[in-house]
Structures are given as structure tokens and as C-alpha cells.
Amino acid sequence: MAEVLPLFPLDWGRSASLLFRDDERLNDLIPGGEDLERVILFSEDVWDLAGHRTWKDKSGAMTRINFTAVAERWRDAAKEMAVLQMNPALAIDHADNPMAQTWPNVQEPVVPVTAQGNIKMLSHALTIIDQQHITRFDSDNWARLVVLLVQPQSVKEKQAGSTLSNATGRGRAQQLITLWQITEIADRPGLLGDAPPFDGRETVELFGGRTKQNAVRPHEGVGHALGFVAWVFDYIAEDIVRPHRVVDREHQRRTADEQARHLRGHARPDGPHRARE
To answer: Where is this region: Disordered (predicted)?
Structure first.
């Protein structure tokens, strides 16, 4: 009888954080955490950051970083990513490896609303990985993901052949790259493979860069022409316009005089016929 191989690894459950304890307070881990309205523990799956100085005008779901859409095996790594994006300096304090040492230099601190958006993009990318049953992260599967990351999830859009924007692809791919870097810091080499995602290629190579305005530079004569126009406005435009203003004022005065004479003629009590008698 042939051996039956499991579709997923048998230990496909939670992979607990190696950087932060479950009972560590987010209030102590992120900048501005002292302003939060309540104590938030790392172990919580929804971080309500209401009261943070960067979004005091937001409330309800708008202030929450929700990890429930992230499957359990990814969830603690995603939380580590969120914390280390908001406070990169913690990498050096919680790990001792080359990635941790360089992390504060390559990752700028982000505010909670940015971390919230990053987790949303990451959850979409990880959902695709799970739906496609990708468990081996080799060159072929990373190449597949370049295509899959810009495919819509709804059946109707798929049937219509729709694709998502390159910006969406770049955003999702970048969060996968960041998550892989976090797995290096936290010593989780099996989560996204040992080698860098997409064979180390940057997202602009995978999905193209932003479209540049003025991609074709104008001829240098255009600059000279614009400079001449500016000189005309500054020095001789008034001399050109002034005579026309004088003519316009004279025309307006004559028109007004003619209208006044006409009105005086119609306003006489006896009228023009009486005057002839």
C-alpha cells in the first residue's frame, strides 16, 4: 500500500513567539504605548490601540490591529512583525543575530495605522499561500506567488480575467519579504524557507515601479521659451496691456454718455412731440 503523505505538516498549529512573552504588555513595547486606553497583551489576537497619540480622532474598529484573519501558524510571527515595525530597536534587545543587528537601520519606525495596513496586506498574501497549499518555498513557488498575489479572490472577478494593480502586488510581496526577515530575527527558518523570498529580487522588479510623470524629458528649448515668457510678464507685459486698458476705459465712458443722453431724452415730461408744438 502506498504511503499517504499529509498535505500539511502534522504540527500545523501555533508557532509561539520566540521574541516576546504572551504576557508582555504592548503598552511597554511600542512608542506611545503609555497613552493607550487599556492594557494590551502580546497574546491578544486583536490589539485595540485606541488612545494612541497618532489616531486620537479614530475609534472602534479603526484603531484595531486584527490578527484573526491570519492563520495560527503565522499569527505570532505576524505579531512580531507588527511590533518590530513600530519599534525596530527592540530587535537588538530580543535577538542576537546579523538580521537583528541590522534591523533598526533597514526598518524605519511606523505608526499604528501603517502597521494595521501592513498586517491586512500580509493576511491577504498568507491566505493565498494557504489556499494554494504552498508548503515549500523554492524558486518555482515564489515565481507562482508573483502571479497569484495580483489575482482577485472572488470567482466572478477570476472568470472575468481581472487582475489587481501592480501596487497591490508590491505591497503584498513586500510584507512577505518583511515577514521572512522577522523569521530570521526570531530564528524561525522553516516558516517561509531558508532563502530570501522571490530569490532576493525587489518588488519593483517583480511588479514594476511606479509610473513616472514626465518620463520623457522635454527639449531644452522648452525651458528657454518658458524663461522668455516669464521675462515678458515681468518686464513688458504692463506696457503691452496698458494702452488697451486706456482704450477700454474711453469706450466705456462714451457708451455711458450715450446711454445717459438717451435716457434724458425719454424722461422729458412733454416728450419730443410736445416740444415741436
So the answer is: 249-277
